[in-house]
Amino acid sequence: MSLTAVSPSEDPADIDRSDPTAEISMRAQAFRNWGRWGEDDVLGTLNFIEPQSRIAAASIIREGRVISLAQSFDTNGPQRGWRRRTNPVHTMTDTGVDAERGTQGMPHGLGGADDVIAMPLQCSTQWDGLGHIFDHGVAWNGRRAGDVVTSEGDLVTGIEHAAAAIVSRGVLLDVGRHLRPESGELEDGYAITPADLEATAAAQGATSVVTRGDIVLVRTGQYARTLREGWGEYAGGPAPGLSLTTAGWLHRTEIAAIATDTWGFEVRPNEFDVPSFQPLHQVAIPNIGLTIGEMWNLEELSQACAASGRYDFFLSAPPLPVTGAVGSPINPVAIL
């Protein structure tokens, strides 16, 4: 793990908006976790989740209430075709009509229904795997990107390795509600800072203290706005999100994973006046080794947490073990 002598500033005003390469490189070098769990590691910060973490998380359960944190998977989703990302296409291959008309060839009156779905793995609520983003042609743990992901898929850090890993204590940081109590929604383009995250946790109380191995969920309120106004530019357009300056917070808190209710996790437009694209991804995934979730539905959970005054819960969010995939759709559930 390499650390620079002086940690990068956590004030967005200090970002050199003309030089994304330097700003990204500074944080990549400062917060790089390469080798921390050995040269063969495939889990990155998910290693912070230990058996005792899950046992402690299970003890949080009080009501037995289960809340799904997934958006819908259907043709009415947010995708607009960028880089061939489309909404799911669900097709029936056998139906009740076929059964009624006896065209299925089944004996003694048996009938049934079957279906198939075609979709990009990152079209709705999902995890970004460690093979999803590279930094100057280098993947997580310092491997050459071309040795990791080929036309055969992610040969090293495929999402299947995390299939039994992502179960831990979850913590909701409802930044939208804390910073904008009247609306509960941050405006598009708002860059969430480490100070915002810490202030939200402090305002929410003791159950919001972020500890090693936690899965942090950051609610901006943007998804709530789409429920009221329609998708608009939700997929890839302007959005509130984490500032590049949160990289140090993501590193030092030793969280296992983080997810937001937005398409891209980080603030959009990104914090530069010259061409740039998802700079925090470039630091967090290939350098910190952080698993990132996007397009989570945090509305019911936020209401439940606000009503109870408790912001931690047992969280189960395993990816589908799609061999060699660099991301996965999920139906994460919070158990209160």
UniProtKB/TrEMBL annotation:
Transmembrane portions of the chain: none
Entry superkingdom: Bacteria
InterPro entries in UniProt: KFase/CYL, KFase_sf
Pfam family, one: Cyclase
Disordered: annotated span: 1-21, 77-103
Official protein name in the record: Cyclase family protein
